[in-house]
Specification:
This protein has 127 residues and is mostly helical. The protein has helices at residues 2-21, 45-56, 81-93, 99-108, 115-126.
Length: 127
Amino acid sequence: MSYLIISLLLLGLLVAFWHLFSGHKDEDSPVVQSDGCATCNGDNDRCEQECMLEAAVKPVEYFDDEELDRFKGRPSDSYTDEETDQFEYILNTMRPEEVAAWRRSLSLRGIEVPDQLKSELMILLED
């Protein structure tokens, strides 16, 4: 009896592996094409979550902003005007297509964007 159960389990595993590695696709499952994280603009929570998960397994990307690491864990409403100017300078010197990746980088590093810049950041992300 145990030979029969083991044989059925092995057969099931073989069928599962064949299905995975044969390139067989279900016709009922929709094909989702993604342009990657560069197209995430904050409107689609799923896109943002997938990009955060993807970014979490990669090294953190820096945008010549290593000096911002000293703000790790700091609340967004506690920045002085001079500290906010540091964020604003970096934000204004980057290309528009880098803004979403920079925001993800800050988030992964535990750095909150100052409240004074959040509306400007959202405008840039929407463009």
